[in-house]
């Protein structure tokens, strides 16, 4: 087990990259702590699979180094890195039984047969395949096959990290929850570093201690689910996390106030001078409707989504969403919108600007 | 896929039935007809019952031809299938060189059988052929027209030359269908090269390999033109395979009765073996469809 | 891209093994008979196109190519035309005796042509088709139709049945659905089936020689003429051989991007 360090890492599939756009992965410096459960979240094509393959050694980065602990593994082949990886679609050895499948990584490493048996039984119990152990993997359902893949990923105890590449794509929704919970408890039990790639924010937020959000080849934020929610470091995180995403307004910042379309909006903290295109962002959860004060709001429609309602509307031409608890009365004359000042974030050219006095 | 029960589908099959009935059933009936009759010329036929079958079953000539045929098919399967797989494993997966390999490999498959025979007939001759000449220069006594062993080697090498690519192309198609993730997973599982072949590549090639074996078995069991052009069945009878013997008997000596009985038994042997292959294949399909 | 030098070596050796005999044929076709028999040379010292000229100016030679082409194309058209509906039936419906019928069809692919040579000769003679192109085309249907049905069935199984149902709901008749919607979907399958029909019809000699004498004599049979009283005319024989390779080579070149898929017969 080891801490993973990415040093000035960048990757381009083009052997002679000319501009930044040629990079699938833009330069980054990150440390992934030993024993952490990380989720790598982003839309498809943002570079998250590229990053994962670089960590697993299936891809050699064109720039920078990868370190496992103190060892530079940039040029080490996959087998030498001692990691496990679970792929998007089930990879099972069709002609082997489920037991042989699970034992395969251990057998290749010449482990003691007694240990292998015990370990396989343990893993099988965990993924719920004890009954199928002596069946051939061919002919099992996609669900079961993916469970085998997961099991094979977890069967080795000494791995540096376990990487999951959207592993629950083919799994039934109700099984998804169960397996994710399993993974989580496995993590608690064995303390492996786990990196979980997904484009599903629910998956990411429920699985990980730390979520790494990627956008356009860049890691835009690495933080706890709470941090991502409260203080998105980039407007993309604001949009991508949360449902619906963050509301943004073009604004001018003046100390502890923002001026939106000539209306003064109080901020929770004081900001220094902010360069570039400035906007303020506020989560729908922290907006309230009122009869007076704030900004003018026009209701377009109201959606019921289970435990809360989403009010969709407009503030002076900008689309705005508000989330209110189920059963909240919406007054007919509520035509103004108020923001919780301490929940407002300020953005300059899409990046969050910390207020004066906040620790970075 | 669930199929609907619909007996009107027979209408769709009808054209094939009519055509195949015309080109297979009628001739086959003719063969059956000959096989139970005897003739003294002048188109006068006599009922001969199963005499011809009985005679053929006790004919050393037929058993010898069958033996040669079985040995030949066994040898070429034993060479072409592993060699074809080996070549497929070494083929470039994509890009310019993959196309070049594919085109060049497919070439022998589209050469008319007699030209294949001709090519090797020329190639192996000691006076004008590169192979024969080179072997002679190396001091190896080689003459496929006089020495039975040399003739066999030449016929086998010719068939390997002609058909290995078919096996290789089928195997290659099977390999192409393996997602990259399988190889990546194998790397992570620290599987050896042999394990990758045994547990990933071979299972994925299984279906197409069965087709390859079936095709190669059937076609090698029916081989006629290539050895006929190359050796004419000789020297002596050493490369007289079943088809060559049959044509000799039917058209050369006009022994219609025995030839017909021989034909039917020949056909039945192929049918029986092919049926086994076919059943295995269908069962495999089913197992995979699960 | 070659993955490793070892692989490049294996492929080079294998391709050399395939190409050298063909090279030798081409080499001989460009030599005079004197050179062929007189001295052993790795390439033609005395390059000549006379052998090709002989073939291309003599109708009894070049008509052999025309004849072969005619029956090969006829066979391709007939085989595909009858195989399409049958393959559709096998891929979509269960009907009485379907499995037996399918296997029976395949058995015809397994029938040794040698068994059929004589009965074919008598059959086609009795219906007055002896020495016509269509006789050979029909005879080759014996092995090409089952193969075409089998290949097309494989490809058709890959087309979801919902497409058929949607088309009927949209008001297509069976005919218009089949021609306008279904056939374009399995175009590659039709191409593969046509390729195999071409291949097996083009390379077959036993039946085509038995069923023809003058008017429809295939090139392959014409080649046996080079054996004459004055010995073998090796140069012309080689040239004729080279010319029979060209159509196949052209066909392969055009389908080069589909070869791998095609050889899987839609069953991978």
From TrEMBL, chain A:
<dbReference type="InterPro" id="IPR047641">
    <property type="entry name" value="ABC_transpr_MalK/UgpC-like"/>
</dbReference>
<dbReference type="Pfam" id="PF17912">
    <property type="entry name" value="OB_MalK"/>
</dbReference>
<dbReference type="GO" id="GO:0005524">
    <property type="term" value="F:ATP binding"/>
</dbReference>
<dbReference type="GO" id="GO:0016887">
    <property type="term" value="F:ATP hydrolysis activity"/>
</dbReference>
<keyword id="KW-1003">Cell membrane</keyword>
<dbReference type="InterPro" id="IPR027417">
    <property type="entry name" value="P-loop_NTPase"/>
</dbReference>
<dbReference type="InterPro" id="IPR003593">
    <property type="entry name" value="AAA+_ATPase"/>
</dbReference>
<dbReference type="GO" id="GO:0015408">
    <property type="term" value="F:ABC-type ferric iron transporter activity"/>
</dbReference>
<dbReference type="InterPro" id="IPR015853">
    <property type="entry name" value="ABC_transpr_FbpC"/>
</dbReference>
<keyword id="KW-0813">Transport</keyword>
<dbReference type="InterPro" id="IPR040582">
    <property type="entry name" value="OB_MalK-like"/>
</dbReference>
<keyword id="KW-0472">Membrane</keyword>
<keyword id="KW-0547">Nucleotide-binding</keyword>
<dbReference type="InterPro" id="IPR008995">
    <property type="entry name" value="Mo/tungstate-bd_C_term_dom"/>
</dbReference>
<keyword id="KW-0067">ATP-binding</keyword>
UniProtKB/TrEMBL annotation, chain B:
<feature type="transmembrane region" description="Helical">
    <location>
        <begin position="264"/>
        <end position="284"/>
    </location>
</feature>
<feature type="transmembrane region" description="Helical">
    <location>
        <begin position="70"/>
        <end position="89"/>
    </location>
</feature>
<feature type="transmembrane region" description="Helical">
    <location>
        <begin position="196"/>
        <end position="218"/>
    </location>
</feature>
<comment type="similarity">
    <text>Belongs to the binding-protein-dependent transport system permease family.</text>
</comment>
<feature type="transmembrane region" description="Helical">
    <location>
        <begin position="12"/>
        <end position="36"/>
    </location>
</feature>
<dbReference type="GO" id="GO:0005886">
    <property type="term" value="C:plasma membrane"/>
</dbReference>
<dbReference type="InterPro" id="IPR000515">
    <property type="entry name" value="MetI-like"/>
</dbReference>
<dbReference type="InterPro" id="IPR035906">
    <property type="entry name" value="MetI-like_sf"/>
</dbReference>
<protein>
    <submittedName>
        <fullName>Carbohydrate ABC transporter membrane protein 1 (CUT1 family)</fullName>
    </submittedName>
</protein>
<keyword id="KW-0812">Transmembrane</keyword>
<dbReference type="InterPro" id="IPR052730">
    <property type="entry name" value="Sugar_ABC_transporter"/>
</dbReference>
<keyword id="KW-0813">Transport</keyword>
<keyword id="KW-1133">Transmembrane helix</keyword>
<feature type="transmembrane region" description="Helical">
    <location>
        <begin position="95"/>
        <end position="116"/>
    </location>
</feature>
<feature type="domain" description="ABC transmembrane type-1">
    <location>
        <begin position="66"/>
        <end position="277"/>
    </location>
</feature>
UniProtKB/TrEMBL annotation, chain C:
<feature type="transmembrane region" description="Helical">
    <location>
        <begin position="234"/>
        <end position="255"/>
    </location>
</feature>
<keyword id="KW-1133">Transmembrane helix</keyword>
<feature type="transmembrane region" description="Helical">
    <location>
        <begin position="102"/>
        <end position="121"/>
    </location>
</feature>
<dbReference type="InterPro" id="IPR035906">
    <property type="entry name" value="MetI-like_sf"/>
</dbReference>
<keyword id="KW-1003">Cell membrane</keyword>
<dbReference type="GO" id="GO:0005886">
    <property type="term" value="C:plasma membrane"/>
</dbReference>
<feature type="transmembrane region" description="Helical">
    <location>
        <begin position="7"/>
        <end position="26"/>
    </location>
</feature>
<dbReference type="GO" id="GO:0055085">
    <property type="term" value="P:transmembrane transport"/>
</dbReference>
<dbReference type="Pfam" id="PF00528">
    <property type="entry name" value="BPD_transp_1"/>
</dbReference>
<comment type="similarity">
    <text>Belongs to the binding-protein-dependent transport system permease family.</text>
</comment>
<keyword id="KW-0472">Membrane</keyword>
<dbReference type="InterPro" id="IPR000515">
    <property type="entry name" value="MetI-like"/>
</dbReference>
<feature type="transmembrane region" description="Helical">
    <location>
        <begin position="177"/>
        <end position="203"/>
    </location>
</feature>
<feature type="transmembrane region" description="Helical">
    <location>
        <begin position="133"/>
        <end position="156"/>
    </location>
</feature>
<feature type="transmembrane region" description="Helical">
    <location>
        <begin position="69"/>
        <end position="90"/>
    </location>
</feature>
């Amino acid at each position: 087990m080891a801490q993973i360090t990415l040093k000035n890492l960048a990757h381009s599939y083009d052997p002679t990259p000319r501009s930044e756009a040629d990079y699938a992965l833009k330069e980054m410096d990150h440390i992934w702590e030993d024993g952490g459960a990380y989720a790598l979240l982003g839309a498809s094509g943002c570079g998250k699979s590229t990053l994962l393959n670089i960590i697993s050694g299936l891809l050699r980065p064109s720039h920078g180094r990868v370190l496992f602990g103190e060892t530079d593994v940039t040029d080490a082949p996959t087998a030498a890195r001692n990691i496990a990886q679970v792929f998007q679609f089930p990879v099972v050895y069709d002609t082997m039984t489920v037991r042989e499948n699970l034992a395969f990584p251990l057998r290749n490493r010449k482990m003691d047969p007694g240990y292998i048996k015990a370990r396989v039984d343990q893993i099988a119990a965990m993924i719920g395949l004890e009954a199928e152990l002596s069946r051939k993997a061919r002919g099992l359902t996609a669900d079961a096959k993916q469970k085998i893949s997961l099991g094979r990923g977890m069967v080795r105890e000494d791995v540096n990290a376990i990487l999951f590449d959207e592993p629950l794509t083919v799994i039934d929704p109700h099984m998804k929850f169960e397996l994710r919970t399993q993974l989580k408890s496995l993590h608690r039990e064995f303390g492996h570093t786990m990196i979980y790639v997904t484009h599903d924010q629910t998956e990411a937020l429920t699985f990980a201690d730390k979520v790494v959000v990627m956008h356009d080849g860049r890691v835009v934020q690495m933080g706890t689910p709470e941090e991502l929610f409260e203080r998105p470091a980039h407007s993309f995180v604001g949009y991508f996390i949360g449902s619906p995403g963050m509301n943004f307004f073009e604004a001018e910042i003046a100390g502890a106030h923002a001026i939106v379309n000539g209306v003064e909006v109080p901020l929770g903290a004081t900001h220094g001078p902010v360069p570039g295109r400035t906007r303020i962002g506020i989560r729908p959860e922290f907006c309230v409707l009122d009869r007076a004060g704030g900004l003018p709001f026009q209701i377009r429609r109201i959606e019921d989504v289970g435990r809360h309602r989403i009010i969709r509307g407009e503030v002076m031409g900008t689309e705005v969403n508000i989330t209110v608890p189920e059963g909240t009365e919406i007054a007919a004359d509520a035509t103004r919108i108020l923001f919780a000042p301490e929940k407002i974030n300020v953005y300059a050219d899409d990046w969050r600007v910390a207020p004066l006095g906040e620790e970075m | 896929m669930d199929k609907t029960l619909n007996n009107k589908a027979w209408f769709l099959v009808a054209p094939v039935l009519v055509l195949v009935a015309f080109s297979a059933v009628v001739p086959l009936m003719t063969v059956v007809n000959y096989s139970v009759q005897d003739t003294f010329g002048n188109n006068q036929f006599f009922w001969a019952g199963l005499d011809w079958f009985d005679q053929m079953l006790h004919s050393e000539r037929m058993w010898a031809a069958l033996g040669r045929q079985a040995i030949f098919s066994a040898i070429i399967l034993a060479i072409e299938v592993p060699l074809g797989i080996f070549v497929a494993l070494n083929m470039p997966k994509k890009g310019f060189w993959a196309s070049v390999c594919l085109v060049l490999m497919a070439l022998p498959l589209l050469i008319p059988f007699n030209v294949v025979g001709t090519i090797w007939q020329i190639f192996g001759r000691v006076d004008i052929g590169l192979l024969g000449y080179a072997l002679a220069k190396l001091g190896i006594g080689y003459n496929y027209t006089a020495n039975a062993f040399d003739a066999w080697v030449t016929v086998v090498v010719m068939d390997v030359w002609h058909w290995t690519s078919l096996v290789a192309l089928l195997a290659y198609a099977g390999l192409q269908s393996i997602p990259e993730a399988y190889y990546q997973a194998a790397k992570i599982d620290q599987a050896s090269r042999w394990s990758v072949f045994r547990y990933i590549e071979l299972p994925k090639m299984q279906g197409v390999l069965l087709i390859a074996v079936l095709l190669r078995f059937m076609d090698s069991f029916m081989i006629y033109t290539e050895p006929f052009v190359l050796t004419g069945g000789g020297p002596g009878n050493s490369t007289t395979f079943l088809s060559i013997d049959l044509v000799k008997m039917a058209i050369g000596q006009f022994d219609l009765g025995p030839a017909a009985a021989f034909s039917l038994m020949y056909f039945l042997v192929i049918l029986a073996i092919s049926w086994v292959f076919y059943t295995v294949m269908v069962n495999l399909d089913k197992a995979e469809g699960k | 891209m070659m993955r490793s030098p070892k692989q490049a070596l294996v492929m080079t050796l294998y391709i050399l093994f395939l190409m050298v005999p063909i090279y030798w044929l081409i080499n001989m076709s460009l030599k005079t008979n004197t050179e062929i028999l007189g001295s052993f040379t790795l390439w033609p010292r005395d390059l000549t196109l006379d052998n090709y000229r002989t073939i291309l100016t003599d109708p009894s030679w070049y008509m052999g190519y025309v004849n072969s082409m005619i029956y090969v194309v006829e066979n391709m058209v007939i085989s595909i035309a009858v195989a399409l509906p049958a393959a559709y039936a096998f891929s979509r419906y269960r009907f009485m005796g379907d499995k037996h019928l399918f296997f029976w069809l395949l058995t015809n692919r397994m029938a040794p042509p040698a068994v059929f040579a004589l009965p074919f000769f008598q059959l086609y003679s009795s219906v007055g088709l002896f020495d016509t192109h269509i006789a050979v085309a029909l005879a080759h249907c014996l092995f090409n139709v089952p193969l075409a049905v089998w290949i097309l069935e494989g490809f058709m199984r890959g087309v979801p049945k919902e497409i058929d149902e949607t088309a009927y709901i949209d008001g297509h008749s069976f005919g218009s659905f089949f021609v306008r919607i279904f056939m374009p979907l399995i175009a590659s399958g039709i191409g593969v089936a046509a390729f195999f029909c071409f291949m097996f019809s083009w390379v077959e000699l036993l039946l085509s020689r038995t069923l023809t004498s003058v008017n429809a004599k295939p090139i392959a049979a014409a080649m046996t003429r080079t054996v004459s009283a004055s010995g073998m005319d090796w140069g012309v024989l080689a040239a004729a051989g080279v010319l029979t390779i060209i159509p196949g080579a052209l066909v392969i070149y055009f389908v080069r991007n589909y070869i791998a898929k095609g050889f899987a017969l839609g069953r991978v």
